[in-house]
Amino acid sequence: MSGVAVHHVVEGPAGGAPVVLSGSLGSDLRMWEPQARALTAAGYRVVRYDHRGHGDSPVPPGPYTLGDLGADVIALLDRLNVETAHMVGLSLGGMVGMWLGEHAPQRIRTLSLCCTSAALGPAQSWAERAATVRAQGMRAITEAVVRRWFTPAWRAAHPDRIRWFEDMVAATPARGYAACCTAIQHMDIAGRLPDITAPTLVMSGAEDPATPPEHGRRIAAGIAGARFEIVSPGAHLATAESADAVSDLILGHLKENS
């Protein structure tokens, strides 16, 4: 298993503790702008990146596994000469974070997991979504994806931002998106949650239809000492809808475990 050279940006003071931000399926590294501002202002060295098959990262032939996506993060840390980092992940990024906590614990200082799941079925739905984008392109699912990302009230109040996020999803390479759907379809991380030793914060959006709070509760119950928090308002991209609350929770977790 070897990682590809994913697109990334590094921000913040050179001497700051490194924090890796890993995004959702269908997003790119811009989704983390509020948290990047908060973390760099607090003195952290922030690394944002695009998953393989997303944004400006390469799109190698699929299908992908969580192991492939985790290997990309390890390769990125190696390229940056970072021995250990705080890992923050939302949705697919949280799944990658859990995989790293299970398979490469020596590289992870802490885990902050937002709006994610360790077992997100049914598997057939992911196969069908992958088939849809391969056949019809990303525009076939863009509106439905962004609808799940935000509460109705936030969508109504921020039409310009909704269009911005829809353009982000639509710009995702269909082949890369479909290959990452397969990684979720076949992921196997729930059974090894007790192996995770990194101090872990789990956050769920109160109104998240994709990974409801019970998914976060199950993750927190499986990891010794994990802390669980519910963010409201918040659907699947609580990092945008309740940006300050999520940033404050992450910062508190990092400071408690520095």
TrEMBL record:
A Gene Ontology biological process term: beta-ketoadipate pathway
Gene Ontology molecular function, alphabetical: 3-oxoadipate enol-lactonase activity
Top enzyme class: hydrolase
Its EC number(s): 3.1.1.24
Pfam families per UniProt: Abhydrolase_1
Domain AB hydrolase-1: 18-238
UniProt keyword Hydrolase present: yes
Record-linked InterPro entries: AB_hydrolase, AB_hydrolase_1, AB_hydrolase_fold, PcaD/CatD
Gene3D superfamilies linked to this entry: alpha/beta hydrolase (3.40.50.1820)
UniProt KW keywords: Hydrolase
Superkingdom field: Bacteria
NCBIfam families, per database record: protocat_pcaD
Name of the protein in its database record: 3-oxoadipate enol-lactonase 2
Lineage: Bacteria, Bacillati, Actinomycetota, Actinomycetes, Mycobacteriales
